[in-house]
What does this fold into?
Amino acid sequence: MKTETARCVVVGGGPAGMMAGLLLARQGVEVVVLEKHGDFLRDFRGDTVHPSTLRVIDELGYLEEFLRIPHTKVTDITVHTAAGPVTFADFSRIGGPFPYIAFMPQWDVLDFLARKAGELPGFRLYQKAEGISVIREGDRVRGVRADTPDGPLEIRADLVLAADGRHSTMRRAVGLPVSASAAPMDVLWFRLAREPEETMSFLHTGRGFVLITIDRGSYWQIAYVIPQGQYDAVQAEGLDRLRADVASVHPPFGDRVRREIGDWDDVKLLSVRVDRLRTWYRPGLLCIGDAAHAMSPAGGVGINLAVQDAVAAARMLGPTLRAGGTPTPRELARVQRRRELPVRAVQTAQVHMLADLYPKDRRSTVERPLAARLVRRFPFLTRWTARFIGVGLRPEHVS
Ligand SMILES: Cc1cc2nc3c(=O)[nH]c(=O)nc-3n(C[C@H](O)[C@H](O)[C@H](O)COP(=O)(O)OP(=O)(O)OC[C@H]3O[C@@H](n4cnc5c(N)ncnc54)[C@H](O)[C@@H]3O)c2cc1C
It folds into this structure.
């Protein structure tokens, strides 16, 4: 078995892992990121870059270059309910230099971070390298064992950052207990061709479904959101029901959905999970991002929280690592304490306040969700919801 050393090994090259790798390398910490896939192109996992993430990119001095990546700017979240359109969040009212969410393919964002990190000495990204287990000495984690195309690899390090997402192998390997909440939905993803100049609003509710459309230039990335655990029922109803639902939202989709969704293989199920670790760390290992707290897509905040965790972890632990020390469990606990409040607040909103935005079964229609009634009655709230979604509690800074 090949053995290497680093000060920190990051398992997972998603938003949390790539940002943590970049920020540690910028501090002069020798860091290895292991990513099990060969590239960043894979299942749809969200395209949103929030104001607080844009500010981090700005603090790093990369903003101008970053914004050259093709993107669209969304200044509000308006939901089309049976009772008419309701604006839930108005980013134009939050002030500051980024009064919008940038929609940018996640693989472009990750490619960008990888490129920037790759320019720094001490940064290594190993793709097709899957973290399999941890190396232990007594009760302490001392590194990671990985499978790579060149065979097994052992990387010894003072800190393992587990950023390997909601099915985290690392958190399982060290036996961190998870508490899960019921997520109200599952999501079926597919694409439909987009006509030049075709526009659509972002979110529509219908009978037994919610439809989210994301402009990807030549195509629409579409989420057909269904009540959780109902995929078998949806399949039993047949593809024609799904096609009719899609066409009911936007009649020009009628022909396209018949042509382009030929069978269930053209539709991908992503089941949604909301969970959180009670303790995010063991001596020598810290979980961040979805590995510490799997987020539902509601509000599109998971990427932002993952990035914010990475910024906090790198800022709080980087100096110890750079000085050649090993972060103590107390230092790891401080990162958890700092990040837990924003995570809890968002998960509570996702599970409770936003739950009635999604139909409970395939017959019901979302008429007047509580959140819609509130923002209709008190329109000033759209500024606070925008701030909560776009910036969140405890926005993190690079230094
Ligand atoms: C259907 C769906 C839609 C979503 N839409 C949005 C959205 O629009 N906006 C938003 O902000 N959030 C969205 N989310 C949530 C968002 O995807 C996550 O919160 C966010 O990606 C978390 O980032 P992460 O880096 O922690 O984990 P991930 O993005 O899951 O990244 C983990 C990385 O680790 C790699 N990996 C996994 N295991 C290993 C291993 N053993 N060894 C090496 N590498 C490994 C994976 O390949 C992956 O690259 C959505 C989630 C779902 C399920």
